[in-house]
Amino acid sequence: MSANEKKAEGIGLGLRVDMAARFLDEAPESVRWVEVHPENYIGRGGLYRSYLDRARERWPVLTHGLSTCLGDTEALDTEYMGQLRGFLGEVGTGWHSEHLCFGSGAGAALHDLLPLPFTDEAARTAADRFGRVRDAIDLEFAFENVSYYAPQGDDGLDEARFCAEVLERTGGKMLLDVNNVYVNSRNFGFDPRAFIDLVPPDRVVQMHVAGHFVRDDGLRIDTHGEPVCDDVYELLGYALRHVGPVPVLLERDNDIPPLEDLLAEVERLTRIYDDAMRARETGAEVHP
Ligand SMILES: [Fe+2]
Predict the structure, then answer these.
(1) Which of 55, 132, 157, 283 matches a 20 to 30 Å C-alpha distance to 275?
(2) Rounded to the nearest whole angstrom, what is the distance from the C-alpha of residue 106 to the centroid of ligand 1?
(3) Is residue 288 part of a domain?
(4) Which domain holds residue 259?
(5) What is the pLDDT of residues 144-176, one digit of tens each?
(6) Crossing angle, helix 120-137 and helix 159-170, to 10 degrees?
(7) What is the 107 CA–ligand 1 centroid distance (Å)?
(8) Quick check: is 220 in a domain?
(9) Rounded to the nearest whole angstrom, what is the distance from the C-alpha of residue 248 to the centroid of ligand 1?
(10) Count of domains forming the chain
């Protein structure tokens, strides 16, 4: 069986060109799978492609998209969707994921993940696009909850119920970003565990954790440029205990530290993962 046909499980790392050379040379055992953004590889050869090929020899690969946000209202780019489908088949990912947000308008990419209003209308729009993307890639598809900074009005759903509504309408899957839940909960004053309690465990196929930045005024910004904080480790343990064994990605996209620092985080995540799975079996408390 090749690495591609193995199931992604445990803790994974994002394959980023800044760390790929040493990471691929050392191929650490503690990393169980890798995640890639198709946008970095489609239509591109050279060094990027050689890194991907080496990673595929060693690990299962999961894919996570950046350019087909589910809140967008414009028609899908059919040429790109064909390329994406080919790429996903080539790397043998078990599913593909995208963000539940707004990312382009008037033909221009906004290069940011902007929040949707948590309304029935937005849920309907996102669910419709979700179905069209899933049909185009002909593969299991999941949406990811994002971090946001603009307060919502009082007339909609809360974020957890909005996600549940999209799940209900699509019958699809979810990539639960635990750091995003935590960041939003601190910025907008809700209980992050209550959010996770509302996520149907059987619909979650994957999780993300990352570090975030705390501004002097207390606002938390999802930077993917800091170590994961203790509260997010703790919330991950809670989420894993709720959901069960799904692959967890350590996202680090900015200020990427030396490999040993990333691997120290992978080891801590592995302990939390193993503890949570044991706790599910025994009913014991989770300790981060
Ligand atoms: Fe994420």
Answers:
(1) 55
(2) 26
(3) no
(4) 3-282
(5) 999 988 877 776 779 999 999 999 999 999 999
(6) 40
(7) 25
(8) yes
(9) 10
(10) 1
